[in-house]
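Exam revision sheet. Question 4 asks you to relate a sequence to its structure. Input first:
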Amino acid sequence: MDYNLEKFQAGLENLNIVLSERQIEQFLTYYEFLVETNKVMNLTAITDFDEVIEKHFLDSLSLYQIYDLSKESSVLDLGTGAGFPGIPLKIAFPEMKLVLADSLNKRIKFLQEVIEKLGLEKVEAVHARAEELARNKQYREQFDLCVSRAVANLSSLSEYCIPFVKVDGKFISYKSGEIEEEVNQAKKAISILGGKIIDVYKFDLYEQKRSFVVIEKKKKTPGAYPRKAGMPTKQPLV
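Answer key, structure tokens:
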């Protein structure tokens, strides 16, 4: 099928990302498989090609504005859902070592098929709740970077994500534009978990106001966190 790639190419240019023909093909294969699977499984409400390019692919890749993904690093995408932002980041920056984690097994099965179809290497899709995975030595404090586009308040997300990050590593949360109040409310929780907000980067992506909250891990996360299943969401640290 022929796609109009103008929007994608312009967006990539804007982000200073250069993709090979093979990488573009991988994105198109991913798009087709996403839309096909979405007919039988609820993966995304967005299926129009241009909208997926803008709201999933370019939004995921916009991280490159503030984090150099071209160097080899270990990345965890927590609550990855249909693979955002992890899969687009992995296609564009194949050197990274990526773990995709989600609590829904059928999503993980979908992602395992995506990995196979796209021929991606150094990537693992794990079915687990964050609270349990963070107790596993293989994953706790093992990552240079944890990213999440999951919809949760920053305090809860920080409790889920910061335990996975190495000291001096970063947790970067994808957020919408209006974030000040949420950031202020999360500061104490982030400090308890061993992190510190070092930047809130705001940008426009077409008609959308977006931001990244960049948290650096300053010290080890106390062993009590994350608390048991559901607690970080029901009773966020304040």
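Marking note for examiners. The longest strand covers residues 165-176.
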